[in-house]
Write a structure and sequence with these properties.
The protein is an alpha/beta fold. About 40% of the residues lie in helices and about 15% in strands. Bound molecules: adenine. Adenine (ADE) binds next to strand 5.
């Protein structure tokens, strides 16, 4: 069970994004909980403002420290110990499957979503434990990245996917991409399903899939192969495959 809490000025966005489909079911079943806290509810400003002009001038507005801090404190008060607080920011370390795995071991995760030109640095220094980005591009706010990370972490929580096997054997496990999948009919648009998948020979199917994963990773994400866990035989297969001229590959 992981409790996800998102500090945001757009709580509806989080609820609408995460209360549906698999994560909606996972919440109903008690495998995870997702709470969105509206930072605006904590402002002491009489006009409900949460942002102000940046000292030193410049474009845009800055989210003020007070409402963010008070919203966070309300969450911390309900936790047994200080939770990991993730500031969702393009300035953070880049999120990946290893980090998703690491975060899935926590019981409590708080995501802080910024808007405008950012959040007053002083409150970030006070509460943030991790700065995490979802990639080298800039979005309008932290809500979508927070949802991306929550989805990736939640699906690793036991019980969230109906079979544990599918969480394990997917793209990025072992640093290999997933093999191609086929379903009925046996022939579609003149294209046949690879013969071996119809053979019923389990060991051969597994070997073929593993090889397809290796080929696919070589072709699409060769950078991943450096950290892939290949057996001696698989390494030999890869070396032989690389020697093939492009037109006879696959
Ligand atoms: N906020 C805006 N862009 C972002 C990104 N790429 N990752 C995380 N948070 C962000």
């Amino acid at each position: 069970m992981i409790r996800f809490t998102v500090l945001t000025i757009f709580p509806d966005m989080i609820k609408q994004g995460l209360d549906t489909s698999i994560l909606g079911r996972a919440q109903a079943a008690g495998h995870i909980s997702v709470e969105a806290i509206n930072i605006r509810d904590y402002t002491l400003d009489k006009h409900q403002k949460v942002d102000d002009y940046p000292y030193g001038g410049g474009a845009g507005m800055v989210m003020q420290a007070q409402p963010v801090y008070d919203a966070y404190k309300a969450v911390e008060d309900k936790c047994a110990s200080k939770p990991r607080v993730i500031y969702v920011t393009p300035q953070g370390r880049t999120f990946n499957q290893d980090l998703a795995k690491e975060l899935s071991k926590e019981e409590e995760l708080v995501f802080l979503c910024g808007h405008y030109e950012g959040i007053d640095e002083r409150v970030l220094e006070e509460i943030v434990t991790d700065n995490i980005s979802i990639g080298d591009y800039v979005l309008t706010g932290g809500e979508l990245p927070a949802m991306v990370m929550i989805d990736a972490v939640a699906r690793l929580v036991p019980g969230v996917l109906n079979n544990d096997v599918s969480a394990e054997f997917e793209s990025f496990n072992d640093n290999l991409l997933e093999y191609p999948q086929y379903s009925r009919p046996e022939e579609w648009n003149g294209k046949k399903v690879p013969e071996i998948l119809l053979s019923g020979h389990h060991a051969n199917v597994e070997k073929w899939r593993r090889e397809q994963s290796i080929i696919r990773t070589l072709e699409r994400r060769p950078d991943l192969l450096e950290n892939a866990n290949l057996s001696k035989k698989e390494q030999a297969f890869l070396e032989e495959y690389k020697k093939l001229p492009c037109n006879v590959r696959r």
